[in-house]
Amino acid sequence: MSHYCDQAPGHPFHGPYHDHEYGFPVADDRLLFERLVLEINQAGLSWLTVLKKRDAFRDAFEGFAIERIAGYGDADRERLLTDAGIIRNRLKVDAVIHNAGVVLELQRRHGSFRDWLAHHHPLTHADWVKLFRRTFRFTGPEIVGEFLMSTGHLPGAHRDDCPVHARILAAGPPWACPSS
């Protein structure tokens, strides 16, 4: 079975994501929220489709401004559902808006989305899935696993012999620091 580390290098979309983002720790709440939004929108589609639409997602969701998205109403929802640049799925759009409100609440209670994740670290994949299902909408095992791997909370984004893996370890991802 081919691994992302075999397929991504040199690809115009997968390459930069693989080499500079996938698996690296993310501390910024906007970037964490962006990754959650992208993973939710990937469900049932290829990751390449999502990467190609990433700039359109940034534009449509105002740079992933969590507070603004949490306040979206019917007009914004309809705007998003007619935006051909993004994935126009009502369940996914509704989940993004709802989840923005959840992240705001997590920020109020824990200081940040990142701190909420750190508060629950370390968990098994199955326990993360249970937590995300209780907390967010549209977060099944695949979405949760990819979100956590992509942001450094679960191992497995890269093979051990991938050159990017050493850079990720040097960046101190949460999965490599179980006592934190």
Strand and helix map with partners:
Blueprint: H1 4-7, H2 14-20, H3 29-42, H4 47-52, H5 54-60, H6 66-70, H7 74-81, H8 90-110, H9 113-120, H10 125-135, H11 141-150, H12 163-170
What gross morphology would you assign? Answer: globular
Give me the count of strands: 0
Low-confidence runs of at least 5 consecutive residues: none
- Major sheet size, sense and barrel closure: none
CATH level-1 class of the domain at 26-150:
Mainly Alpha
Strand content: under 5%
Q: Helical percent range? A: 55-70%
H/E element string? HHHHHHHHHHHH
**CATH level 3 topology of the domain at 26-150:** Endonuclease III, domain 1
Number of helical stretches of at least 4 residues: 12
In short:
The chain is mostly helical. It has helices spanning 4-7, 14-20, 29-42, 47-52, 54-60, 66-70, 74-81, 90-110, 113-120, 125-135, 141-150, 163-170. It contains twelve helices and no strands.
What does this structure look like?
This protein has 180 residues and is an all-alpha fold. The protein has a domain of 125 residues: Hypothetical protein, domain 2 (Endonuclease III, domain 1, Orthogonal Bundle). Helix content is 61%, strand content 0%. The longest helix is centred in the middle third of the chain and has 21 residues. 33% of the residues are buried. The model has no long low-confidence stretch (mean pLDDT 96).
